[in-house]
Amino acid sequence: MRNNTEIVMELAEQRKNNTIAFKVICFDEEKMIQTYRGEYRNLMTLLNEKFYLENFGECRGMGRCCTCVVEVEAMENCLAGKQRNEASTLNKMGIDQPNMRLACQIMIDEELDNAEITIGVF
User: Fold this and answer.
1) Do 43 and 112 meet the contact criterion of CB atoms below 8 Å apart?
2) Which CATH architecture has domain 19-119?
3) Between 63 and 22, residue with greater pLDDT
4) Distance between CA atoms of 117 and 84, rounded to whole angstroms?
């Protein structure tokens, strides 16, 4: 039977091997972010924690307020995950560019690896 230390070390190694890395440009600041699936609920939560953004994600992830709009570059299947609320909210705000997304609707997964996220373009 494995002890707790061995289990913790194994989990740490698995996370290290499953690292998701991407660049975030927030106004004049540029950061490389490393995370893993499940560390954050969604991109909005991660960005709020890393950049302390005021009035970002006021609806707390419901996809209705459009305060967490980001530009996504080099993300495979950028449109694949766009759900009804997100598409409707972006449409109401007159945003029709396919690479503009609501951060609250982007899950932290392998599709984000090597992406470039820009905050403050809207």
Assistant:
1) yes
2) Roll (3.10)
3) 22
4) 22
Give the Å distances, CA to CA, from 107 to 36, 60, 97, 101, 122: 11, 14, 20, 11, 21
Sheet holding 29-35, edge to edge: 29-35, 20-26, 116-119, 69-73, 100-102
**pLDDT, tens digit (0-9, with 9 covering 90-100), for 26-81:** 988 899 999 988 899 899 999 999 988 888 878 777 778 888 999 999 766 554 56
Distance between CA 14 and CA 52 in Å, rounded? 29
Q: Are 113 and 48 in contact (CB under 8 A)?
A: no
Sign for the CA dihedral angle at 44, 48, 53, 57 comes to positive
